[in-house]
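Q: Protein A?
A:
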Amino acid sequence: MAEGDRLVHTARRFLTRALRADTVPAEVSTDRAPVYPRVLDELARSALHTEEQYANNPIETDHGRLKARLRQMGGLNRHRSARILAAGHAFVQNLHRGHYDLATDVPDRHRLGIAFDDLDITI
């Protein structure tokens, strides 16, 4: 298999796995590799393809807090621990940003506390 064919195969396999949730993203940010436009035209034709250098900065900086916490803990010893910590971190970040219908009627600075109080009563 030629190098170009291998890159296309690898990009197609990665994007197929990423799109398993049966949702087509509105925008896909990649580097400037020439294989991406071809594969994105096949798999996510309606998605806007962005190749700007700093397009992923909000996404890349989002996990900075998680990495800072992991450094203090000395890392994770089990896969299960990593899964639980990552899921909890993502839940709190999304809750704080208002992605759930919990405590959306209160100011941002109070949202986490009120949402956890509501969850405590519910559970």
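Q: Protein B?
A:
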Amino acid sequence: MSSPAPAVASRTRLVLFDLDGTLVDTAEDLASAVNRCRTDRGLQPTPPLELRPWTSHGARGLIRRTFGLEPGDAGYDALRTQFLDYYEQALCVHSRLYDGMEQALSAIEASGRIWGVVTNKPARFTRPLLRALGLERRAACVVSGDTAAHPKPDPAPILHALAQCRCEAGASIYVGDDLRDIQAGRAAGVGTVVAAYGYSASLADVTQWQADLVIDRPQDLLRWILAQ
């Protein structure tokens, strides 16, 4: 359920979004890639619905869930490379904007505000995915997991986005579905919004993340944005 809009909304000029699980539903394509790795090894595919909550954790989370391997374990690096190669070959087959997200983006643009993407997803995948969805040229900035010196929960990616967009932290918000997103946003000094419809939020009590706002669907951003 959506919480009341915080005071920071009255001066918001820049809306930053996490990618997987917030802006775009990429779960099925990522599940397909990791399941190709399983079938190559004679294993049964893991049901995609079981993998959805782990999607925001990227390769590490999906490999942990499907193979029980961690970085440093024997075979992990080769498996990760294969998984990423498979994903790159078919990264926008089923991926799509969440229902209501296009309306939210259009409302942001129509109001004279700008929006961008800050994700831990490597640029190797981020820009081709946004391009395939027709979003790359609309975004005021695209900060990938290998753009800044450190990924989220470090604030560096968000601070990079603020500098690129020439926008102050107090005039910006960050929307994400993972605790790391909220931690990074708070550390960067921007307003924080939990996308409770996303992946990681289904595994946790998001009210404990101390975000400024919790939304159940992308359209809920409109009340915050258009009320200004």
